[in-house]
């Protein structure tokens, strides 16, 4: 079983591609992902499972790292919530994206870092403690910053309630994470037993969200595919390059530079998809950038991890 789980994580990008192919060939296969269960969105349930899994891997020490490495943390968080939102807005304007895609792209830019960044940092032999700390801190403060920044960037064009978005993020993100933290603190043996299985469960949840969104928007994606795919790839690649620039110009070591680059580019795209579906129900295509971003960041991230591990000296 452990061998299977190891292979699943190692070849996760191939699993994602399989879900993408199935969703595009048979759009109704994952249609249930966009439904509700007892009034609760299935996407939100899947996201809560992912964030609960993240919580079980965290300890209070991860948050204490903020005080041990204030420079790296402050730079990483500042870059996360300044560079990525402005980058998203700039790309949307440069490529004249329609309203729905603009909203979706900006949400990808305003959400916190994704948990996959920790995995890629580990595979790339980056600074894992810094990566976990950045992911945890950016996620915990996201109920405030994501709605506020989203309001500043798109609120003048499309009315939405940032307070409702704050509540959504608390429900989807904060509560599951702290439940995971509680389990890890109170029942460490249970958390340890879940450690081998939750990454795979989380990976499947991500794939299901991607499949549901892509299947529901198949025709629209095919019609405007090259534009939005190009923009998503640019958003990710420029995030990596700008992360390198931030780390290098601030005098960090290579391990930290690469970690900042990975952390900056990897977004919680599942959350952006959920927020788009919940708060912009009339803009169905707003869910697409998040789904496409998730596909690309996991595929490209696996390649990046190999390059960093093979060609950069990250032992120090």
Query: Any low-confidence stretches, pLDDT <50, length ≥5?
Result: none
The structure class reads mainly alpha
Q: Order of strands side by side in the largest beta sheet? A: 1-2
The profile of the biggest β sheet is:
2 strands, antiparallel
Number of helices: 17
Total strand segments:
2
Radius of gyration, taken over Cα atoms and rounded to an integer in Å: 18 Å
The ordered string of helix (H) and strand (E) elements is HHEEHHHHHHHHHHHHHHH
3D shape: globular
Round the mean pLDDT to the nearest integer and report it. Answer: 82
N- to C-terminal distance: 34 Å
Helix content: over 70%
Hey, roughly how much beta strand do the residues contain?
under 5%
Description:
- The chain is mainly alpha-helical.
- It has 17 helices and 2 strands.
- It has helices at 2-10, 12-25, 42-56, 60-68, 70-94, 99-110, 116-123, 128-140, 142-154, 162-186, 188-194, 198-216, 218-223, 225-249, 254-265, 269-279, 288-311, and strands at 36-37, 40-41.
- Strands 1-2 form a two-stranded antiparallel sheet.
- Strand 1 and strand 2 form a beta hairpin.
- Helix 2 packs antiparallel against helix 17 (288-311) and helix 6 crosses helix 17.
- The longest helix is centred in the first third of the chain and has 25 residues, at 70-94.
- The radius of gyration is 18 Å and the shape is globular.
- The mean pLDDT is 82.
């Amino acid at each position: 079983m452990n061998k299977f789980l190891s292979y699943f994580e190692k070849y996760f990008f191939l699993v994602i591609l399989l879900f993408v192919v199935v969703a595009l060939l048979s759009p109704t296969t994952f249609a249930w992902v966009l439904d509700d269960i007892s009034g609760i969105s299935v996407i939100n349930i899947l996201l809560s499972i992912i964030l609960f899994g993240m919580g079980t891997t965290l300890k209070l020490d991860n948050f204490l790292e903020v005080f041990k490495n204030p420079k790296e943390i402050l730079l990483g968080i500042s870059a996360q919530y300044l560079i990525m939102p402005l980058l998203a807005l700039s790309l949307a304007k440069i490529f004249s994206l329609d309203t729905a895609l603009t909203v979706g792209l900006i949400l990808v830019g305003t959400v916190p870092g994704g948990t996959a960044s920790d995995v890629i940092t580990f595979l790339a032999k980056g600074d894992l403690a810094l990566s976990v700390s950045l992911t945890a801190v950016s996620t915990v403060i996201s109920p405030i910053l994501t709605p506020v920044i989203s309001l500043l960037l798109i609120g003048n064009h499309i009315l939405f309630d940032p307070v409702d978005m704050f509540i959504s993020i608390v429900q989807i993100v904060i509560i599951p994470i702290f439940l995971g933290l509680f389990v890890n603190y109170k029942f460490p043996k249970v958390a340890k037993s879940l450690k081998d299985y939750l990454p795979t469960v989380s990976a499947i949840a991500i794939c299901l969200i991607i499949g549901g969104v892509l299947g529901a928007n198949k025709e629209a994606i095919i019609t405007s595919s090259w534009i939005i795919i190009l923009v998503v790839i640019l958003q990710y690649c420029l995030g990596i390059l700008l992360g390198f620039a931030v780390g290098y110009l601030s005098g960090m070591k290579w391990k930290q530079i690469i970690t900042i680059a990975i952390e900056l580019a990897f977004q919680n795209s599942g959350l952006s998809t959920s927020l788009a579906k919940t708060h912009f129900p009339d803009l169905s295509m707003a869910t697409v950038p998040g789904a496409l971003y998730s596909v690309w960041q996991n595929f490209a991230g696996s390649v990046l991890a190999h390059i960093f591990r093979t060609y950069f000296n990250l032992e120090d």
